[in-house]
TrEMBL record:
Presence of keyword Ribosomal protein: no
Recorded family membership: Belongs to the carbohydrate kinase PfkB family.
Entry keyword set: ATP-binding, Kinase, Nucleotide-binding, Transferase
Annotated ranges, domain Carbohydrate kinase PfkB: 19-283
Protein name: 1-phosphofructokinase
Length: 303
């Protein structure tokens, strides 16, 4: 199960032989994670609130990705953005945030996610695109309730939502080095400083910590050890969404019983392959698994 409280409608304009080419997709962190899970052939349910005209469009688009969407009916409108990618630089034309969910709508979304999560082996808690949509406290309660009912909980969050979900307890948290710096858990990009921040996340409630570092090897803190994920370098086309693909792939592998180290290799491959494509979370499952064979987890040499 992927908890994606408020997905987005993404509209992009690209160049096709000198003519504008329009693309509409369901988007947002949870959608991109669920798309990666589905591409690996693992069944996935996306728990989301869909409302307004944008929500009506999202209902149709989500069904095209092989994702089961379990929706809570709401009146709050989903957000959307329009980007022009006809030049080398992505240009934002419009960015419309989603509406905050009312108390009754939050209750409905929570109940939907809780029941679906209990039925699932692994649940990912992803964030809304706008911080006003869902209070951080919801994440603490959902993480605690899912874990107490035997569900493996994975989170890809930052800021106050990360703080909240750590209180509830996590099996695995994925963060970027930028998020660790922004949250004040590390004071530099130096590996030793980042590992100290990862250990603070472990001490606060995460059993395993996966840290992406842009072009540098990801760091993994698990089972009392720190590893680095080394793999072939690939030329990036669009770096956005690599972390979401990584999280989705790790969760997918854990759901089918893959050992942790092997699941992380698949996650690293998914994140790396994602940057070679324009579509977020759109890497092919066979390609990801083939690239995962080239990923090496090496013991980190620091203190």
């Amino acid at each position: 199960m992927v908890f994606a409280p408020s997905p987005l409608l993404t509209v992009t304009v690209e160049d096709l032989g000198g003519e504008p080419d329009l693309h509409l997709h369901a988007g947002g962190q949870g959608v991109w994670q669920a798309r990666m899970i589905a591409s690996l052939g693992v069944p996935v349910a996306l728990c989301a609130a869909l409302g307004g005209e944008v929500g009506q469009v999202l209902r149709h688009l989500l069904g095209e990705n092989g994702i089961e969407h379990v929706q809570a009916p709401v009146t709050a409108r989903n957000g959307a953005y329009v980007h022009d990618r006809r030049s080398e630089e992505r240009q934002e034309i419009a960015d419309v945030p989603g509406d905050p969910l009312s108390r009754h709508e939050l209750d409905a979304v929570y109940e939907t996610a809780l029941l679906q999560g209990i039925r699932s082996t692994v649940s990912i808690l992803s964030g809304p695109s706008d911080r006003r949509t869902v209070p951080a406290e919801v994440y603490r309660r959902l993480a605690a309730d899912l874990r107490s009912n035997g569900c493996v909980v994975v989170a890809d969050l930052a800021g106050e939502r990360l703080n909240a979900v750590l209180e509830g307890g996590l099996d695995l948290v994925k963060v970027s080095h930028e998020e660790l710096l922004d949250d004040g858990r590390a004071d530099s990009e130096d590996a030793e400083a980042l590992v100290r921040g990862m250990r603070s996340l472990r001490d606060e409630g995460a059993e395993t910590v996966v840290l992406s570092r842009a072009d540098d090897p990801a760091l993994i803190l698990a089972e009392g050890e720190v590893w680095e994920a080394h793999m072939p370098r690939l030329h990036p086309v669009d770096p956005r969404g690599a972390g979401d693909s990584m999280t989705g792939a790790i969760a997918a592998e854990l759901a089918v019983g893959t050992p942790l180290k092997d699941a992380i290799k698949v996650g690293a491959a998914a994140g790396a392959l994602n940057v070679t494509r324009h579509g977020l979370g759109s890497s092919s499952g066979p390609g990801v698994r083939e690239l995962a064979e080239l990923v090496e987890l090496r013991s980190w040499g620091g203190p």
